[in-house]
Amino acid sequence: MTLSLILFLVLLFTGLPLYVNLGMSSFVYVIMNHLPMEVVVQRITQAANSFTMIAAPFFILMGNLMNTSGVTKKMFNFANTIVGTVPGGMGHANIIGSALFAGMSGTAVADAGGLGNIEIQAMREIGYDADFSCAATAASAVLGPIIPPSLPMVILAVTAEASIGRLFVAGVVPGVLMTISMCVLVAYYAHKRHYPRNPRPTWKTLWVAFKEAFLALLAPIILFLGIYRGVVTPTEAAIVAAFYSLIIGVLAYRDLSWKELPKVILSTCETTGVVLSLVMTAGIFGYVLSIAQVPQAMTSMLLSVAHNKYLLLVIVNVFLLFVGMFMEGTAAILILTPILIPAMMSVGVDQTQACMIMILNLMIGVVTPPVGVVLYVVSNVSRVPFERVMKATIPFLIPLFIVLLLVTFVPAVSLWLPNLLFGVSM
Q: Which helix (H) or strand (E) is 168 found in, with range?
């Protein structure tokens, strides 16, 4: 196993696609230990043959449809109409707009790429600093994978064999807390820098903004109620959501033409292909790790260093934050889930809470250098240098870390709502 891990680490820094790296490292172990080759085929097929995994392409399709149909702009206009009158109103609209869009996009990059350009331009036009506009946009994009639906949660649920329904619901309270805490920071900067506020809207303006965004706002409500009432499973909810997005984009808003659909579908297929390749090769990699008893060894090592639950959680958080700085979130989930989730569960941490700790840490990583992909996306759409975006985003990490600590050390933050809706997990 040592040779396979060394090969994996070496290939990790060569720029080789991760799914190729995972597959080659696993293949070397299988060959060296004379395991039957049928195992490779079986494990790869088993990883792909997952009903839960069907949700991934449909959530990706949903986000692409919403972006292409202009729903993002309607969501932001609605948020700006509601909170734009308070000091720093456009900044609050940025955060809240991202929270609303998170209920449809499922990824941080989709949030930053879809809403980012709209939000940054609107804020700069009325006098907000370019750096602050970019920072608020980048930090609020973290809400995408936290507030359901969430593509990383789907992947984590498949990898950890956890309940996707419980994970989706577990993200609601942390997502709301992150939204509120970032709005508090925006209010502080608005007071300090005397950022402008919008004129008070008339009832007619409020009604028009609400009417334009109403059908889009129904999407996360339909998802949540459908799952809660047992009408659909979380996987089936993804299919319903994608179909709903298509209907409102083409027939209701009419901002999406039938001619644009092939391009949207092709983009969805490309993204899905990458995700599925990662999941399939991670399946055999996880099997190799289990055969070599790496998770058991890592758990024993962690428990020998950390003599109690809270010290172990501190070590896991620091490790995940470090990993998030250098590794893309999906890759880290696929590699580390078989190791860290059992380690946390062995000291009495609920599986759902352990998964939320992992998600929050790795999603904070998308706004931390040097591999903070959202920082690069925001820098690209805003034409603001990466270094300036990175520096301005640092204060926004404070509220994110506060919520992370709450999720880590106050189980009810992530477990109260799932336990209320689905019962206490055993």
A: helix 164-170
